[in-house]
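Record type: monomer structure entry
Structure origin: computed from sequence
Chain ID: A
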Amino acid sequence: MRAPNDREFVERFAEFTGGRRPTSYVEGWEQFIQFCEEGYDDNLDEYWFDLSIRNAIERLLTDERLSGFPQMEWVRELAAELRDTYGIRVEVRES
């Protein structure tokens, strides 16, 4: 059995996320953290919407179709960083 390549990973990731690329999750989380550190100045509905990236990251971590890809290591590392730096719990499963 051959190892999956980057293109296969990006295609499977896009299928799971409805067309989003892996980097959009990292960028979305970094932007949300920046907003919070600077003093989140939008309304509560927008806060909950922006925070939803955390739930999306957890869904990625627990999806069996993606867990076998070695490229998912960056998501696991991000989740561990969230947990360690900000005390935000997301489940980190090793493949």
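Annotation 1: Residues 9 and 77 are 17 Å apart (CA to CA).
Annotation 2: The chain has a mean pLDDT of 80.
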